Amino acid sequence: MKKINKVVLAFSGGLDTSVILKWLQDTYQCEVVTFTADIGQGEEVEPARAKAKQLGVKEIYIDDLREEFVRDFVFPMFRANTIYEGEYLLGTSIARPLIAKRQIEIANETGADAVSHGATGKGNDQVRFELGYYALQPDIHVIAPWREWDLTSREKLLLYAEQHGIPVEMKKKAGSPYSMDANLLHISYEGRILEDPAAEPEDSMWRWSVSPEKAPDEPEYLDMEFKRGDVVALNGNKLSPASVLEKLNQLGGKHGIGRLDLVENRYVGMKSRGCYETPGGTILLRAHRAMESITLDREVAHLKDDLMPRYAALIYNGYWWSPERKMLQTMIDDSQGKVNGWVRLKLYKGNVIVVGRDSRTDSLFDPNIATFEDDAGAYNQGDAAGFIKLNALRLRIAAGVERNKN
User: Fold this and answer.
1) 98-149: per-residue pLDDT in tens?
2) Where would I find the beta strands (DSSP E) of 91-190?
3) Contact, 18 vs 44, CB < 8 A?
């Protein structure tokens, strides 16, 4: 075992990371620095400070990263209209590179020679964290307790906590029915009843949204203003990136928008069933595509759609800091220079309905050409005959070959 003097632990203050903190102290005989990120999970982060102090931690970092999270990670991802396997909006995936980045920064600030996380050896997060660590500091030492210790169940964790005097809140002892992860983009649920893909989740599971059946009977209209592909205002009110997503989450949750029940393919090879609430992200994706529909060239839009699944897989699999993701991001960001204007949406019982879009400066929609009325010569319909014949040439040749065989 390599001698470790100081390690930076991604610390939530919950059962798992509290046990990890004590385990690191005892197993590696090292100093532990705790880092708690506020990325909009909706829970108080200050209790993590008190827990760390109880366990003898001297250097405690609690950082508000909400604006950085949305501005530098969520918004760039949504410029690509990113979804994984046709449905998942990557709420957990996109948070990990930011946490990894800040952990490495803290390791450099404190002179730590190792970093540690609480991800299990079965999941994607271990890959996301560690690829981020190594990309940002290639010689960093990584400690992944779930791959080293024998505390392989919740019961063993609770017993370890009891034996070592680690305070555990009663609600944790009672057991949460789901393993949850939350940030400003989403909240996820895994485990327990969801491990049976045939079982419908209880309605009481959902935290952020009402069911569509219980949503208001009247629709609500929303105007979203875009500048260079990012939302800058809602209903005429200028907002910061984090404030935009907070407001969209409130509106989407109110109208039963953004629930997803998905069986996905994890990077480590297994299939996993999870449920997700992404109300704000669901609205944002629909609005951004509507904005692009009148401001992007056809081939640019189609090329973005062709590349998006690859870009999504890079984020899902933990390659945010890779050169190929950065290359794709440069292309995507360049495409957004003229994605400016506004989109009007109607929110109603789980649906996000686009009812209007306009760009006074960059719209490629020409009503004089698109009209079904007299276009005054703006478009010569006779030109279509040659266009069709040229594109039909290979089909005609193939059909002739088949006919001659008979």
Assistant:
1) 999 999 999 999 999 999 999 999 889 999 999 999 999 999 999 999 999 9
2) 114-116, 141-143, 179-182, 187-190
3) no
Note whether residue 188 is domain-resident. Answer: yes
The Cα–Cα gap between 254 and 196 comes to 28
- What ranges in 150-232 are assigned the alpha helix state H? 154-163, 170-174
Q: Is the pLDDT of residue 174 over 80?
A: no
371-399: b (≥16 Cβ within 10 Å) or e: eeeeeeeeeeeeeeeeeeeeeeeeeeeee
pLDDT digits (tens, 9 = 90+) for 6-59: 999 999 998 899 999 999 999 999 999 999 999 999 888 888 999 999 999 999
Q: Domain of 60?
A: 6-67+91-175
Residue 26 and residue 148 in one domain: yes
Chosen domain end from 123, 155, 175: 175
Distance in Å from the first CA to the final CA of the chain: 76
pTM: 0.94
- Count of C-beta atoms within a 10 Å radius of residue 138: 7
Give the 3-state secondary structure percentages of the chain, helix then strand then coil, rounded to 5: 45, 20, 35
| 343-388 tens-digit pLDDT | 999 999 999 999 999 999 999 999 888 888 888 888 899 999 999 9
**Total domain count, the chain:** 3
| Domain endpoint, select from 144, 175, 206 | 175
Strand duo 230-234 + 237-238: pairing? antiparallel
- Known catalytic residues are 16, 96, 125, 179
Q: Name the helix (H) or strand (E) containing 193.
A: none
Q: What is the 3-state secondary structure (H, E, C) of 76-100?
A: HHHHCCCCECCCECCCCHHHHHHHH
Q: Check which CATH number belongs to the domain holding 28 and give it.
A: 3.40.50.620
Is 387 in contact with 366 (CB distance < 8 Å)?
Answer: no
Tokens of 327: 């290359």
Q: Tell me, rounded to whole angstroms, the distance of Cα 13 from its chain centroid.
A: 23
Confidence of residue 173 (pLDDT cuts 50, 70, 90): very low
Place of tokens 């964790």: 157
